[in-house]
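Before a colleague's protein record goes any further, I have to sign it off. What it holds is a sequence and that sequence's fold in token form. Would you go through it and say whether the fold makes sense for this chain? The record follows directly below this note.
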Amino acid sequence: MIAYLVRRILYAIPILVGVNIITFVLFFIVNSPDDMARMQLGLKRVTPENILAWKKERGYDKPLLYNKDSDGLAKITQTIFFQKSVLLFSFRFGASDSGRDMGYDIAQRMWPSLAIAIPSLIIGLLVDINLSFIIALFRGSYLDFWGMVICVAMLSISPLFYIIGGQFLVGKLLHLVPISGYAPGDDAIKFLVLPVLIGVIGGIGSGVRWYRTLFLEEIHKDYVRTSRAKGLSEYMVMVRHVLRNALIPILTGVVAILPLLFLGSLLMENFFGIPGLGSYTIEAISSQDFAIVRTMVFLGSFLYIVGLILTDVSYTLADPRVRLN
């Protein structure tokens, strides 16, 4: 297992390095620090002195890849590539273009994101699995047909409809919870109920269709036919065998998205005013804070790769038929 895990990590490192290099090229070569300064200061009536001062304040005045005016290792370390890209691998995010400590902001904002993401994941998983199990149990019936029709219809609706519709119905008409906002501590619950509810409802269409497909794939396998031939009822076959074996791909799929929960939901947090990492990214894009955008791209790619590694490991643990070579 250790050798397998080491191999997976070694495979992942070049991918992360490649993403980091592409991000650097996009932000510092395609879009130069001078361009960033003009966008921040305004395209009109900006002087070269203003641009130089803006870059110096943020560390963008250094050479891109090689500092010929420095000595020793400083020729490499005193460059934009090292300061703004390489140091990300040690999770030293530095300051944003607005001067804020990004490490502190991320540490504070990830908790509201998790407060929405974790309940939405757990409740949504339970709802989707139970609904898809019932539909698969009554496959070929009217329940199956109309259940799939409703799922396709829900899947076809924009997430914005669920957000705006939920705010209007539950928040404005029924006055059950606040429409938007956030408060720390126990007061956060009333602000999180509606986003979690909308997240669960919005995911039913895709979740039920996916889990139903997994159940139907297991239903037609030989071991299921053997269980029926031994006299087990259809319900017992579904519970003892189909559900148990279908949980293996379900588990691996859930493990894959666990690290991405830290990044939050861009739409959900923005519309509900939740100060999470999703709204943090949207605010950075709106204010053209390129340092935050770069950091969130790196963090997103890192967490995605971690999710893939955890998926491989969890699959080998959950399914004894998988051999580690």
In short: The mean pLDDT is 85. The first helix runs from residue 2 to 30. The two ends are 9 Å apart (CA to CA).
